[in-house]
Amino acid sequence: GKAGRQELQDQQEAAAKIQAVQRGKTGRQEAGVQRQRYESGALLEELDQAEQEHDAAAQIQAAQRGKAGRQELQDQQEAAAKIQAVQRGKTGRQEAGVQRQRYESGALLEELDQAEQEHDAAAQIQAAQRGKAGRQEAAELKQQTEEQRAELQRQVQFLKEAFASHDEDGSGFLEEDEIVELLCEAYRKQNVSRSRAKVRKEVASVIAEYDEDGDGKLSLHEFVQMYCLDLSLIHI
Question: b vs e for 147-156, b when ≥16 Cβ sit within 10 Å of the residue's Cβ?
């Protein structure tokens, strides 16, 4: 009757409370598991981030070391290139000096050949006009010209040897000190007393007069001109 229904209702309420307690316990367990999963995932993310940062730092250090190594290699290459450039420049200047001597001595001989040809042409014209006497005179003039040319060639060769023997650095030029030494030696050979200071003054004067390009030294061509035209200097 009524008492039975009340007892049934009490049993149902008790069962409901027991189920609620069990569901709460299960929910707390599931929440703990979820929290453990979350915390373990966050830890893994932190580990991944730390590893990425370490890799980035290692890459930056490697790049810096690589840059320093490349700079050092570049510096070494530039230093080697400068040394090679200096060596090539020195060799080139010596070769240029030799080539210039060859060119100037050749140009001087060409001038002598041209002068001889012009003289021969004039002599032949005069010989044709004067007949036999003229031809005889032309022959004599030609012989004199050949002798003069031979003497000039001998002097040119002598001057070339004197020039080369006093061009101590092989530059193809005689600088002031080298010319002073050359003239002092010539004065000594001729037993002429002349102080080095006076010789240096003479050298400064001839350089100012015969240095055509104004570089403060004499080329072979300028040296030959000085010797042939300046009568104030003692013959070498």
Answer: eebeebeeeb
